[in-house]
């Protein structure tokens, strides 16, 4: 999917299956090839549709930026066409080589958009029926417009589905609050805070939030940009070249600078929350995802995190997070970025261990170890990069770059200076 059509289904849109990872571009420097995308294809009705000016905006650099939340909500407000147990999703009825069934009774259906009237569920690809932890919302037409056709992932608070917006045929990723948390007021508030954080800031390297709200049975949801590609976690396991690592770092900091300026702190920056989007131009292109732990900074923000709460991922957690400090701000994201870059350049994060508590103790008290680059990168790493990383990994937040803008300026100087 090209960057200029990331909110429309172009001809040849690939229907996601359990394996979503696209073969990564060779420019990433990955030593082993990833898995190829599946070949079953959805076809958009009629001629290929180009994104309109209300749906995408070009920056001066030529990159596409998704439209605002109001732009998205104003598009195609007409309700989906429903007739005789079928919902028009804006796509051709044929799905080449993909059997479809009701996720509840497994009755077979022939067309994408067919609805099982007995269980009020849309037919989904059979490959989704027995997927591990298949979500309970599978097959729903959420809020009357999002057809949830498959599961992408599941976390502590939410489940992410790949979906089609009816009746326009636009592919989206829809995150819904887990059913057992729908009666938990604080969980709902955290979920909506994530949606608000995503909607507050627009940047090419941040996943876009198009819509959010409460759907059927007060099911909290957010409709997100659908990204085809691989996580940085998967790419690091295969080995990245130096230019790819540094480009990824710079793009993360560019997004972080915009994010921090808007008063948003991610608080869970790690390789599995950094996607490398597949692009036709084969360039490295970062998308930061999962703002489930994000914090909005401002006088009117209701604080949900109290002193003593520990949140985040131990390996990438800042010392202040590990200590349960409620005042976790922008420098925490800078610290996590330092861990990610350290891992990319050396092959391992600076602090490891079998027990999370032991790792957290190292973040708080153990000095940063010797910087030993991967042998194939050692001769080419810029001279100032180690000093930059050690600055990011200072124990005291006051001793680090104070936000993404300051860190970006220092990184660019270390990379190119």
Word description of this protein:
With 417 residues, this protein is an alpha+beta fold. It has 2 domains: 83-226, Phosphorylase Kinase, domain 1; 229-416, Orthogonal Bundle (Transferase(Phosphotransferase), domain 1), CATH 1.10.510. The chain is built from 9 helices and 22 strands. The protein has helices at residues 69-74, 185-200, 232-238, 242-261, 319-322, 330-346, 356-365, 385-392, 404-416; strands at residues 42-44, 56-58, 64-66, 82-83, 86-87, 91-95, 100-101, 108-109, 115-116, 121-122, 124-125, 141-142, 146-154, 158-165, 170-177, 209-214, 220-225, 229-231, 264-265, 274-277, 286-288, 295-296. The protein has a 6-stranded antiparallel β-sheet with strand order 12-13-14-15-17-16. Helix 6 packs across helix 8 (385-392). It is elongated. Mean pLDDT is 77; it is low at 1-73 and 298-308.
The beta-strand count equals 22
State the secondary-structure class.
Answer: alpha+beta
Major β-sheet strand ordering: 12-13-14-15-17-16
Low-confidence stretches: 1-73, 298-308
Average pLDDT rating = 77
Reported CATH architecture of the largest domain: Orthogonal Bundle
**Number of discrete helical segments:** 9
N-to-C span? 35 Å
- The total number of structural domains is 2
Q: What is the approximate shape?
A: elongated
Helicity range: 10-25%
Q: How large is the radius of gyration?
A: 22 Å
Largest sheet, strands/sense/barrel: 6 strands, antiparallel
Subunit organisation of the chains: single chain
Class of the largest domain in CATH? Mainly Alpha
The third-level CATH topology of the largest domain is Transferase(Phosphotransferase), domain 1
* Portion in beta strands: 15-25%
What would you give as the CATH superfamily of the largest domain? Transferase(Phosphotransferase) domain 1
């Amino acid at each position: 999917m090209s960057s200029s059509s990331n909110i429309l289904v172009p001809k040849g849109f690939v229907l996601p299956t359990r394996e979503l990872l696209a073969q990564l571009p060779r420019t990433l420097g990955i030593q082993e090839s990833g898995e190829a995308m599946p070949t079953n294809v959805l076809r958009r009705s009629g001629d290929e549709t180009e994104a309109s000016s209300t749906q995408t905006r070009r920056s001066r650099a030529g990159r596409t930026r998704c439209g605002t939340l109001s732009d998205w909500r104003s598009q195609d407000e007409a309700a989906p066409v429903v007739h005789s147990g079928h919902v028009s999703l804006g796509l051709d009825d044929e799905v080449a080589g993909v059997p479809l069934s009701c996720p509840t009774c497994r009755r077979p259906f022939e067309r994408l958009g067919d609805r099982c009237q007995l269980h009020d569920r849309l037919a989904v690809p059979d490959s989704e029926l027995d997927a591990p932890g298949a979500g309970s919302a599978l097959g729903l037409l959420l809020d009357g417009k999002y057809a949830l056709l498959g599961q992408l992932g599941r976390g502590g608070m939410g489940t992410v589905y790949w979906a089609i917006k009816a009746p326009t045929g636009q592919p989206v990723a829809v995150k819904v609050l887990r059913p057992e948390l729908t009666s938990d007021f604080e969980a709902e508030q955290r979920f909506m805070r994530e949606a608000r954080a995503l909607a507050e800031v627009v940047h090419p390297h941040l996943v876009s939030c198009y819509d959010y709200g409460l759907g059927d049975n007060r099911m909290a949801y957010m409709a997100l940009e659908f990204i085809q590609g691989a996580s940085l976690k998967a790419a690091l396991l295969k080995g990245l070249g130096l230019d790819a690592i540094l480009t990824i770092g710079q793009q993360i900091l560019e997004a972080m600078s915009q994010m921090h300026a808007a008063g948003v702190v991610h608080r869970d920056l790690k390789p599995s929350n950094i996607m490398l989007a597949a692009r036709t131009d084969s360039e490295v292109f970062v998308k930061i995802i999962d703002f489930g732990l994000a914090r909005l900074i401002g006088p009117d923000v209701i604080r949900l995190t109290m002193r003593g709460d520990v949140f985040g991922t131990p390996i990438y957690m800042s010392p202040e997070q590990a200590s349960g400090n409620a005042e976790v701000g922008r420098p925490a994201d800078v610290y996590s970025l330092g861990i990610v870059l350290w891992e990319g350049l050396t092959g391992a994060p600076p602090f490891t261990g079998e027990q999370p508590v032991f790792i957290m103790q190292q973040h708080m008290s153990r000095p940063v170890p010797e910087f030993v680059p991967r042998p194939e990168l050692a001769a080419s790493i810029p001279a100032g990069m180690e000093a930059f990383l050690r600055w990011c990994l200072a124990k005291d937040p006051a001793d680090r770059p104070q936000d993404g803008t300051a860190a970006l300026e220092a990184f660019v100087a270390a990379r190119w200076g």
